[in-house]
Amino acid sequence: MKDENAGDYAGIFLMRRLMLCLLLFCAAPAGAVDIQFKEIPRAVIESRLRLAPGKNKEREPGLRELFEQERCPQLSEQPVKHVKAPNLICSVPGSLESIIVVGAHFDFVDLGAGVLDNWSGAAILPSLLESLQGVPRRHRFIFIGFTAEEQGLIGSKFYVQNLTPEQRNQIHAMVNLDSLGASPSKFEQTRADKQLTGALTALAHNMSLPASIVNVHNVGRSDADSFQDARIPAIVLHSVTTETWPILHSNRDQLSAVHIDDYYDTFRLIAAYLAYLDQILDQPLQ
Length: 286
Fold this sequence. Notes:
By secondary structure, the protein is α/β, with parallel strands linked by helices. The protein has a single domain, classed as 3-Layer(aba) Sandwich (Aminopeptidase), CATH 3.40.630.10. It has helices at 42-50, 56-69, 115-122, 125-132, 154-161, 165-170, 194-207, 224-229, 260-280, and strands at residues 2-3, 7-9, 18-21, 33-36, 74-78, 87-92, 99-105, 140-146, 171-177, 186-187, 212-215, 220-221, 234-238. It has a nine-stranded mixed β-sheet, with helices on both faces. The protein has a two-stranded antiparallel ribbon with strand order 1-12. It has a two-stranded parallel ribbon with strand order 3-4. A hairpin with an 8-residue loop joins strand 5 (74-78) and strand 6 (87-92). Helix 7 crosses helix 9. Residues 3-31 have low confidence and may be disordered.
């Protein structure tokens, strides 16, 4: 998360006609929102977190290897001006032209090991790819490992600036993951799209998982801002509170800063959230 304290308050919305499929794959009965995703074992999620490369130049290749293990259908690098590492982009086709972008930056500052900020977000992207595979999706999903976020959101700004007007219009949601697992799931409300925040809080309620509002926008911008600046609906999920904020950009940013129980709960919530957004975006609830 890029530095620029956090106010903490929660909002819960009830959602009608929702059934979650929490094991492997299952179908909801008629009349329910059909959410299907694959649960990834906790040991896999934890092992990928522990793989955090110790050097910035190793981050993009390390993330690429994880995507290759999950057989990303279309994996490419986007060279970014003035930085060495490219954006890493994994695209998964859908039946619609509309797109859901899921992003996390992989770079980190010199202090600490950069596990919380932000290997915790980047390492979860391939697992989210795996969780969505096996079921036809309505939206095209684009998973992006952004470069040079810590230098001023360079990678995400470059990505957005190089979209055509048609491509911008096709992105109906951007879900940004930054600094996960230092506490139970949090999300930024200040600039977030209302439909995206409403869906997240409703889903968390139905899954009995925590998801509270902690607005950190005034003290730290993230890659979601690059999309929001372009008027693309976006939301950022994180784990920053007044207690965990000092860990970022410090020697305390080590593997020990991530609570595995919270991290795994956050993965489960995000995996279900993406499958849910795939069903509800572009069509009203009945």
